[in-house]
Amino acid sequence: MGSVFGNNIKLSLFGESHGEAIGCVIDGFPYGINIDYDFIDSEMDRRRAKNAKLATARTESDKPEILSGILENKSTGMPIAAIIKNENKISGDYSNLKIMPRPSHSDYTAMLRYDGFNDIRGGGHFSGRLTAPLVFAGALAKLALKEKFDIEIAAHIKQIYNIKDKYPNNTFPTYEEFISNYNKELSVFDNEAMNKMISIIEEAKMNMDSVGGIITAAAFNVPAGFGDPFYSSIESRIAQSMFAVPAVKGIDFGLGFDFVNYKASECNDLYTIKNYNNIKKVETKTNNNGGILGGISNGMPIIVNTVIKPTPSISKEQLTLNIETKEEDTLIIKGRHDPCIAVRAVPVIEAALAIAILDLCIDMKGKLL
Amino acid sequence: MGSVFGNNIKLSLFGESHGEAIGCVIDGFPYGINIDYDFIDSEMDRRRAKNAKLATARTESDKPEILSGILENKSTGMPIAAIIKNENKISGDYSNLKIMPRPSHSDYTAMLRYDGFNDIRGGGHFSGRLTAPLVFAGALAKLALKEKFDIEIAAHIKQIYNIKDKYPNNTFPTYEEFISNYNKELSVFDNEAMNKMISIIEEAKMNMDSVGGIITAAAFNVPAGFGDPFYSSIESRIAQSMFAVPAVKGIDFGLGFDFVNYKASECNDLYTIKNYNNIKKVETKTNNNGGILGGISNGMPIIVNTVIKPTPSISKEQLTLNIETKEEDTLIIKGRHDPCIAVRAVPVIEAALAIAILDLCIDMKGKLL
Amino acid sequence: MGSVFGNNIKLSLFGESHGEAIGCVIDGFPYGINIDYDFIDSEMDRRRAKNAKLATARTESDKPEILSGILENKSTGMPIAAIIKNENKISGDYSNLKIMPRPSHSDYTAMLRYDGFNDIRGGGHFSGRLTAPLVFAGALAKLALKEKFDIEIAAHIKQIYNIKDKYPNNTFPTYEEFISNYNKELSVFDNEAMNKMISIIEEAKMNMDSVGGIITAAAFNVPAGFGDPFYSSIESRIAQSMFAVPAVKGIDFGLGFDFVNYKASECNDLYTIKNYNNIKKVETKTNNNGGILGGISNGMPIIVNTVIKPTPSISKEQLTLNIETKEEDTLIIKGRHDPCIAVRAVPVIEAALAIAILDLCIDMKGKLL
Amino acid sequence: MGSVFGNNIKLSLFGESHGEAIGCVIDGFPYGINIDYDFIDSEMDRRRAKNAKLATARTESDKPEILSGILENKSTGMPIAAIIKNENKISGDYSNLKIMPRPSHSDYTAMLRYDGFNDIRGGGHFSGRLTAPLVFAGALAKLALKEKFDIEIAAHIKQIYNIKDKYPNNTFPTYEEFISNYNKELSVFDNEAMNKMISIIEEAKMNMDSVGGIITAAAFNVPAGFGDPFYSSIESRIAQSMFAVPAVKGIDFGLGFDFVNYKASECNDLYTIKNYNNIKKVETKTNNNGGILGGISNGMPIIVNTVIKPTPSISKEQLTLNIETKEEDTLIIKGRHDPCIAVRAVPVIEAALAIAILDLCIDMKGKLL
């Protein structure tokens, strides 16, 4: 509950944007997993802003210090704790933040929830900075999923503002195709779409505005027959994890909301048999249900789409309320802001998916893997 | 977990479509709530098929027998258990169901998950019939929410296939406006849209096909400052509850996926002050965030949209796989089926929302209400 | 939480002593388990009063009706719901019960907790009657433990008042030796001790008084290496389950409180190797730690002792408080009462242990057993 | 689960004895609590060895660094994370520890549980060192309990080996009387008993042996009517928390196991009225039930006794098993060890109690305190 996730693993996130450190504890992480530090670094890197035109992150190293749970490069089965020190702490006055809450941000609601005692600087615990330990935890989850279950997680930007990505050959891509995008400027399949997205983001930035996006993530090789009905459906598990990501306002699976535009006879996923090296495997001809039926995996890729709203912190002048005078007042949010946080959210979404899938797998196969 | 929901309440659903009975236990339900049996009946009624042209429910009375937790028409604070006997049980042979799984249904995945031991008749525990105890639990949750918190829950059909509902005056309706639709053929605001929806459903039925829909539900009067960050965000809580409803494949809040089409300067919800009988209340001019910021309520209506996929059980001939022969085979699903389950899902979605909000409220205000 | 137990299974108890029915739902029970109805009946029987001199149970059949989760005598993996109808319901006036709370009972505390809305008749939800569904759930748990893990659960009365049972040959008995007591008047190894216990109970009954007892339960064949540190230690799990049994006021493992009388050099369990059909097995020479080290099983029998306080409902005249007059007043509790509830608690304690161990095993080995 | 405790708070413990750091995260800690650092220091101090003759702690400063959740000396409502760096880390070879497991320790069981991947040095995550962050969390819980509920927690050593403490005037002491012992050599009421205990511990130390003890803790001023039936009974909650403390092998409430020696007519707690400044308060004349009836508080002090087994690490030569040769071998545990860990466990037991009671209070009164 709160900042804690999972049934058999327990991921506990902590820290505030301008406090001493942010970090996480992962309780119940499987033992004996090889910890690939280069992979962890590369995941942390993907979350950082690469292109000054497209994102404006605080220039912090965001290097997790691992305090426990790993010995001789293998997980011990004990809680893994890691911290990331905050280098750019602000010690100045921030009382005005409480008086002039930023629109569409947590400033006002958190103030009510915590009776004004919460640390509001930079969004405090609600800051996007907390996605750094989330990506760290996700990287570990990916390592465990790969080593123990051969499950792989990837994502791409499906849409930025009105520009949509396209899949090569109109087929849902493989894991390898997904990760081949990771060294591009944006994790997008179609280069033409990518360039248009870049233009739109640059334009938003120039206008001191921001845009949102849709990210599609997939879990490959989840064995068929994993999951539960009702409240532990794979959808329920993933959704709980995804809505922890700041700015996510919607989630759907497979066709998702687009199901409304089809008749059953057009969108039902028909079963078939495929041959893989003379091993017959039951598959569906289409994957409109995103790999999940009745809350349980059917062996097809699990496909999940999430929408990231436009970063509410914009430099453009906005009206807000002065809490003290109870009158509307003009707000100018200083500092530099991401014109499209969806760009950097790709590995965060993957992390949220990986963590949910790892918890699912341990539910199914037990702690003695 | 599994068929159990909640942090401070625990709703446990049980039963199979063709077993002895279905039902639920609600642990932690508040004490002293007046149990309005007429209201419960009316909620159960809304879930049943009213119009033979639009839905084909089993003609069962679906009358919950309350076994515990209520004394002299008031909740005792003890677990409330209720059962609904299955009147139309099938005792015949059903072995063929295991051989020819229905496309886009849980038949195949549940068989793998439970190694074939699950009761597959009529979908078993995965049947839409399980939404009957869910609506019962939702009715109780609504009574508690109204009595203890003055919170009200309602929903309407936002879209069926390509037909969208419209709000009167283009404003998000009030609770009273929402419930004024409940005696219409469909819970839709715009009568013209409603009639078109009816035609589409009738056509689908005639073609032995089905269509899906989008339902928008709202929670009115949730106090500002309720909720938590991350995994207990209001979105995470509601999503976990909603994805328990069979056929739900997506959920979003406020503008939801439509956020992608806006710039922050166009969709940020600006604060303002409104006067209600000389009481000043902080509101937002728009409610694009669906009443939730940072996982916490801001006092505006909580707005949640869910998509219901077209009922996969259609009478139309479909290809499926014969599990024994490992070859494709033609499937004809006998019996009568709902051509648009979204029609009857309206009170189910409300129930899922009410239960999540009640759990939230007890988290915030405690068990000693 | 509340009346709900477990991490991977969720056992939900419901019902009141004089309501319609009592019962339980077991969510997450393993699929494919052979349901031996005779065994379930025999367990329910063990909980009933056999000897009118030693116990005074309501003469109800206490036959569980199974509503879901079992098909063709095998568990389906779906929630198992069962109800036991209350036959001896009282419909008379019970308002005086709220005015004159019985000493050492839940009457007064429950009234405060539920603001007087709880059903106080016969103890309501706090009644010992709720142990009937607990024994039912325990019987199922035992069947699953035996079939999937070869784990067996048994118990005996270790002490009644000042009379202590003795083990044959001063060795901790085997499972077979434990269950050989089940057809005796009391589940006691030493017949001399048993006869003395019977005398003491009869004397207590004659004096309109009651006595308590200590029950020792054991789980045999729990594999070494099951468990977790800290809050999911086997001790933490079992203790949470045991303290749900009414009248239990203490629990310890192995030597338990008696550890205080030893030095480490006298009570440390030294390791050794034993040969079983040429299979070498690590054991400890003594089992003072009751099969648990660091919260994790070591392969020896898990041994747990619980104390059951003297039944507080006695026929003897007692002083209590008249809540209305706020003055002390004389209370005479009518009806017949158990002079030693510990006698009938033996299968209840076993059930509480079996349920905790089953949840542990699923944690370790997963839901796909 | 695992190293995570609580329903509305989530305490997550992490770290290994010879790893980088140990620590904890407390999610859901109430906002606005004044953080008294001197009090925290004094609690940490109580856990450290004061008297070289009675205890042999690693001479580490054990100063928690707070990373999050506190701003301007007040809790923010966000997760509080704190770490304690390990100063005396061992980097040498420890492979022999895996071959020769210490009797009655977690060495062998943890090795099986984690397939040998766990950090075994100094007990790893199972080390008594982990009680340092537990005491830190307990200190915070005490501050919140005092400020928000006026609840106070204290403990004393009830027994060491065969020496029992005595209460002044044979009455259960007040909170003030309890804490007046805290500057004594041992937290014991009766000085004569204390001196005998000291002799016994010194003797055990001289003989390279160890002794155990019983600690009685109390929670004062818990309002009547807090708690739940069955699995969330106050006993179940406290027991789950207590059995997380290493070396605890038993727990009971009030008379506890001693109930077996009484008849109901002798031990039932009779109600009475007491006058406090003209305010009438319902009390019980005795408190044999330790303040809990039906799992719910009755307003009397909650009294809980726990037994701490003799420290299994003794310098005396012991037989153990050589895991490689599968033969018995002589073990000499090097280093200095506590001859009676119960001495330093007093504040740890208090912490475990405080954390359980805080979680209970938030359950009852909600997160918006």
TrEMBL record, chains A, B, C, D:
Keyword match Flavoprotein: yes
Q: Where does FMN bind?
A: 125-127, 294, 309-313, 336
Give the catalysed reaction(s), semicolon-separated.
5-O-(1-carboxyvinyl)-3-phosphoshikimate = chorismate + phosphate
Record's cofactor remark: Reduced FMN (FMNH(2)).
Q: What is its EC number?
A: 4.2.3.5
Which major enzyme category is it?
lyase
User: What Gene3D superfamilies does the database record attribute to this sequence?
Assistant: Chorismate synthase AroC
GO MF, one example: chorismate synthase activity
Q: Which NCBIfam families match?
A: aroC, PRK05382.1
UniProt record similarity statement: Belongs to the chorismate synthase family.
Summarizing the function annotation, the protein's role is: This reaction introduces a second double bond into the aromatic ring system.
User: Which PANTHER family does the record match to this protein?
Assistant: CHORISMATE SYNTHASE (PTHR21085:SF0)
Q: What is this protein called?
A: Chorismate synthase
UniProt gene name: aroC
